[in-house]
């Protein structure tokens, strides 16, 4: 590890790019999360009905229907064939996320994301051990499970407990005891399992990951030759395994982060003091010499890169 | 770091164990979720679904809990159930005693529903079937005490069809009448206006879900008088209509003064 690894995460980026520069995408992301929540709230709060409904289904400006495709899929496996409005809404949502990256939902829209990010922040502050780390594939099993339960019980089963819609619906329509589930997730992430919910278990994230499997918008480690091993991107990335193949790839390997697990949060872009990462499209063929070029000059680095 | 662990050759036993562990965990989670979903299916009797709602079982498969019906109800009748409130979390319902359904002619709640959980085939609000009003307390109802409250009858949007006042003898006083509010299930939409308006501290008339409010005839039951009407003759050929023995002066003597005529004659039957 280089000396820089010991610096606090992001300290170097703040020093070179300024605080705003080193938190640009994070700030935009928080704004976007607040924006999408706000859209739903200004109706009930101020009587300004731009958007009606909630994340499961909504109507914008009395014309644009949007439906959560996973909720609708459960309804279909529970043997209800929905009306055209709902199907159209789901197709629009699917098309958008298939284009910009499924898990953009996770980092730019989902209201649980600030909760689990908050838990992660506190987790690090308190120095809690990382705890139980279920396999990343668990979320796909859970996704299959909830579809099976929907089919078996003939209900939209996940919606009985889905903390995401519970929180958002709670804020827009009235919470009841819905907050207990959200608190549960916060405490789970804080004490039981580091990044346990969003990065290991959440079946909604898994679903959107599948949707965005071939998404156009991708992060690329274009400038990977400049990487100075500070490891900050790995520290901030909620799905750090996605970075390795791109960042540590050889010159002939693509610098694009192609794993559908990447949430397109852009935190790696923020935190890198030498600007290795940037947003681009999956067909970007810009040359990106790998670390192998640089490694020729420094054999010590090569052993670690392997 | 998980990437580092991969370097070791994959231990088959360990792999199977991991897979089994994940599968078992998911099975447990799935069973719990299934049990919870099954239990949450029971709708409390006071919770009424919006007009046009599919039967409860189908409704829970169809409703995505978007709340668009709630938003488009001009009377704020509907709410989405909160966790721990009774009806399945997030699904729309109303409580008649709080805010009843005003039976909008254009049925905006049904129009707003994107999924068909509220059946778009419902185009006449008079055909809605949210529940059925039942005069559950025939002792405390003010009309049963001999007064003329009549409020439930007056407020009914389907007055004189869904609810009528039936004149009965007041046994207690011996010489008064009672006007008992009487609901006719065929016409009652379950809007709940009667329950909302009942002047008693606890309503004497309540809207109940159909499963509680009604009985059901066996599938094989035939109503003879209806079949006879349809056929225009006795259901069984060659039936003889014997004279009815009815009270009155001159038994069997229907022509005698003061005798009774039978309520109806079997059409086409021989005398
Ligand atoms: S690779 Fe970058 S953009 Fe993708 S999830 Fe990780 S930090 Fe976010
Ligand atoms: S018919 Fe009118 S009052 Fe009744 S639930 Fe629908 S929108 Fe509300
Ligand atoms: S509009 Fe339809 S799908 Fe949405 S909450 Fe109402 S009944 Fe359910
Ligand atoms: S619920 Fe009451 S007010 Fe409404 S239609 Fe039935 S009898 Fe009339
Ligand atoms: S309003 Fe209540 S008390 Fe009055 S007649 Fe109707 S049911 Fe009876």
Automatic annotation (TrEMBL), chain B:
UniProt keywords, alphabetically: 4Fe-4S, Electron transport, Iron, Iron-sulfur, Metal-binding, Repeat, Transport
Residue span(s) of domain 4Fe-4S ferredoxin-type: 53-83, 90-123, 179-210
Signal peptide: none
Listed PROSITE patterns: 4FE4S_FER_1, 4FE4S_FER_2, TAT
Coiled-coil ranges from the UniProt annotation: none
Pfam entry (one): Fer4_4
Keyword presence, Aminoacyl-tRNA synthetase: no
InterPro entries noted in UniProt: 4Fe4S_Fe-S-bd, 4Fe4S_Fe_S_CS, MauM_NapG, TAT_signal
Protein name: Ferredoxin-type protein NapG
Organism this protein belongs to: Sedimentimonas flavescens
Name of the gene this protein is made from: napG
